[in-house]
Amino acid sequence: MRLWDLPGARRFVNTACDLLRGGSSVVIQFPGRVPDGFDSAVAATLGNTLDVGSLVATTSPLQDLARRYVQHPRHIGRLQDLCEDPGFRGRLVRLNGLDSETWSAWCAFISAYAEMSRSRPLFGRSLFLVVLAGSPPPEPPPADIGLACRSWDGLPDDVDLLLFATEQLREREDNPLLRSLVATTIARVAAWDFDTAAALVAQDYETIMDPRDLLREMAQDKGWAVDTPLDWSLGTASRTGSAHPAHAALDDPPTELHRRLWSAQLSVLFPWIELRRHETVSANLFQVKRQMRAEGDSQGDPFALELGDLLRLFGRRGASRQVRKTVLLLREARNELAHRRHIPLPTVLSLTASAVGY
Q1: CA distance 59 to 61
Q2: What is the DSSP code string of 139-178?
Q3: Which member of 128, 224, 337, 357 has the lowest number of beta carbons within 10 Å of its beta carbon?
């Protein structure tokens, strides 16, 4: 599964293509680099609707377009001349090679073109697809009727990444609880960054459950330090301020990273622990009731007993050694999660081993 197969990323491409089909040029901002496969995803979505051509930008937009698409470029002295030339009409131009110098010229040109092109019929109107990337990416021109601006913001989200991780782990892990926990951990840690999710899913479980060293290496490769600002334009955060996992791992202690690890375990393991508590009471109901009566509690609800209560009752008699061991493990795990601490891998493996068959 690739990034552009994920629902959020696919919607992003579909929206951009719908705007192009509707007659608007589109400017897209990516922090850092353009994700791999973006142009292919756009081309596949457009199909034969629009003829996509690529143009390397210089500081002379009108001359660039005239030389590329017009039979007699010397006759093109104004923007209106270009719009009326049959060689230019009905095209989709994907601009490449943009930098701070070339974008300054093209930004003004595209704004002027959007204003002029909106009065022209959709059939035969040429459009531009502009991708701005970098740290920070250049600012887009003001949106207009014939010009739409979109930013890669909050995509993919943790639901997309959970789908990705689950699919990648399907052939690797048979234990449904462990697979769900590992996939959720990857999605929560990565938060919104597909590259991090792809890197994590290729690691062993020890690294996934404690990814700080891996994430710090990623931060080093990106040139980030603890004092690098959290900023969408730099790629270190989402628009809402959620830190890139590699940046979060630089904190000492890495409080945000630990919160994400704990959050994943809480959402998967806590309900399962409660289910196992209920099943343990049900499987030992006669003995539980007998011990409750022995303590003078004949009217209480045995299914309301907490794990600590069960451990105390089973510590006296009425349950096998294995049942007592399981209840003890469940209680220890529950207490860790209740105190906002994530569970280390050996405990996770012991806990999830009992989930086979559930």
Answers
A1: 6
A2: PPPPPBTTEEEEE--S-S-HHHHHHHHHHHHTTT---HHH
A3: 357
